[in-house]
Write a structure and sequence with these properties.
- The chain has 486 residues and is α/β, with parallel strands linked by helices.
- It folds into four domains: 1-38; 46-77, no CATH class; 110-378, no CATH class; 383-485, no CATH class.
- It is built from 21 helices and ten strands.
- Strands 4-3-10-7-8-9 form a six-stranded mixed beta sheet, with helices on both faces. Strands 1-2 form a two-stranded antiparallel ribbon.
- Helix 6 packs across helix 8 (180-190) and helix 17 packs across helix 18.
- The N and C termini lie far apart (117 Å).
- The model has no long low-confidence stretch (mean pLDDT 83).
Length: 486
């Protein structure tokens, strides 16, 4: 009897031991057999750790072991499920999430922390920094006006500004600072740059809108709110430029808790084991009004413009215009075209209006390098404008100013004289690097500007053609150049 009990106990222990061993080994076995249990991929922008080659140095520093461990762990077939189990525990027990920059607010409203920072003004980049950026934007406006083209700036509120009551308590603060969106708007208006700030518009619509304007689990405006934004922007363009372009019209509205497009972009990165209850959201069907004017628009902006482009609103209303995503990629990304590879002068020549489009949380990098990418590339082939450009550049560059002060002392010259020498040098370098046609155009424009009688004729032509004098000089000079080349 005793021997029988001992045998049974040993068997039970062996069964438990091998069961535990099997459970511990199962993730490896499952991976070897390419997924005995199916496992869905993790949501969000996620990439697995890459394998690492062995080297003596990396082994003894410990980096090989760390990278190899990460590779083996993250390439297990069941790794996504383990991540979801961990995330569910943190979310259910502590209301926390492992999604990057994401915090869980009241009633499970999700926020990117950068929007909370923007709401309180914690990310304010400073008065001087904004004034410098505004000066560059103003000069971009002037350059575009030279070619009889226009510039409009459009700002949107972030989710924290729209739902401050949903911000989690640990992120709330009593002190508010100057915000980038307010100071940018103030300075742009001072400089005469046409600006549409939709922050108050959305706050006014918050309690009256029939449909949600900001999704509970999303970072961007809802699909419905994005259509409202596009419609408001288009009407603003029509009033500002006195044009008639197609308008988006909502002809049908689908309401569903099966979220689409960007309405669940934060939720997708949570990677929870159990689904959350979704709010009902609205998805409009759009048609477009007939119009008499065609306007080609280039929008340079952040991710809040993606839906306007992806939904077809941009293409249908703006005559197949372009969208530069943060001045880096040409949207849609499937084109695989980068802005740095474009012929900028040609792009601007084919554009009637440039829109700089931003939400408040990305204003620290606004206007996303647009002025530095465009300004020098589209400088008028006019010595007056080239000199003006480098003067503007110098006046907004404190490092350059310090350099001039040092050179002025070294050369025993007055600061203004040294400054003018630097500007003249830059102008000559710019012109010397141009092709022959461009140099000839500069000389023709110089002849026109120095001939009062000729200039008066062109002034009258500018009035007759409803354009500015600089643009008319440019057009006449181009005509003469083309005639001389025949």
């Amino acid at each position: 009897m005793y021997l029988c009990c001992c045998f049974k106990n040993k068997m039970i222990k062996k069964i438990i031991f091998y069961t535990i061993l099997l459970l511990l080994s199962f993730p490896i076995i499952d991976t070897i057999f390419d997924g005995i249990i199916p496992s869905d991929k993790l949501g969000g922008d996620y990439s697995k750790a890459q394998d690492v080659s062995f080297s003596t140095d990396s082994f003894f520093t410990g980096t090989y072991q760390q990278q190899k461990t990460s590779f083996l762990n993250e390439n297990l077939n069941l790794y996504p499920d383990f991540v979801r189990i961990r995330n569910q525990y943190l979310f259910s027990a502590f209301g926390e999430t492992k999604a990057v920059h994401t915090v869980v607010g009241k009633d499970n409203y999700m926020f990117d922390v950068s929007y909370i920072s923007a709401y309180y003004g914690n990310d304010f980049i400073g008065e001087q920094a904004i004034k410098t950026k505004v000066a560059q934007i103003k000069y971009l406006k002037e350059l575009l006006n030279y070619y009889d083209k226009n510039l409009i700036v459009c700002f949107l509120p972030g989710k924290a500004s729209f739902y401050p009551e949903k911000i989690p308590d640990k992120y709330k603060q009593k002190e508010f600072h100057t915000t980038n969106i307010d100071y940018f708007t103030q300075e742009l208006n001072k400089k005469g740059v046409t600006t549409l700030n939709l922050k108050q518009y959305f706050l006014n619509a918050k309690d009256t809108s029939q449909y949600s304007l900001y999704p509970k689990y999303g970072i961007h405006l809802s699909s419905y709110a994005t259509v409202l934004t596009a419609d408001t922007l288009i009407k603003f363009i029509e009033d500002t430029l006195n044009v008639d372009i197609p308008n988006p019209v909502i002809t049908k509205m689908e309401t569903t808790d099966s979220l689409k497009f960007y309405d669940a972009d934060i939720y997708e990165t949570l990677n929870l084991l159990l689904p959350l209850k979704m709010d009902t959201m609205a998805y409009p069907t759009i048609e477009y009004t007939q119009s008499k004017d065609k306007l080609k628009v280039l929008t340079i902006g952040d991710s809040f413009y993606k839906y306007i482009f992806d939904s077809g609103i941009h293409t249908n209303c703006f005559n197949n215009g372009s969208f530069w995503f943060y001045s880096k990629k040409v949207w849609p990304l499937s084109t695989n075209i980068e802005v740095k590879d474009l012929d900028i002068r040609k792009q601007i020549a084919e554009t009637d209006l440039v829109i700089l489009y931003a939400t408040e949380a990305t204003l620290y990098s606004f206007p996303y390098g647009a002025s530095s990418i465009i300004n020098e590339k589209i400088l008028p082939l006019d010595e007056v404008w080239i000199k003006k450009y480098y003067t503007e550049m110098l006046n907004s560059n404190t490092d350059w100013q310090k350099s001039i002060s040092e050179k002025a002392k070294a050369n025993n010259l007055d600061y203004d004289i040294q400054k003018q020498r630097d500007i003249d040098y830059m102008v000559n370098e710019y012109i010397n690097n141009l092709d022959d046609d461009s140099k000839n155009l500069i000389e023709i424009i110089k002849r026109i500007r120095n001939n009062d009688e000729w200039l008066q004729v062109i002034k009258q032509k500018a009035i007759n053609n409803n354009t500015n004098l600089d643009n008319m000089i440019y057009l006449d000079a181009m005509y003469i150049l083309n005639q001389e080349k025949k």
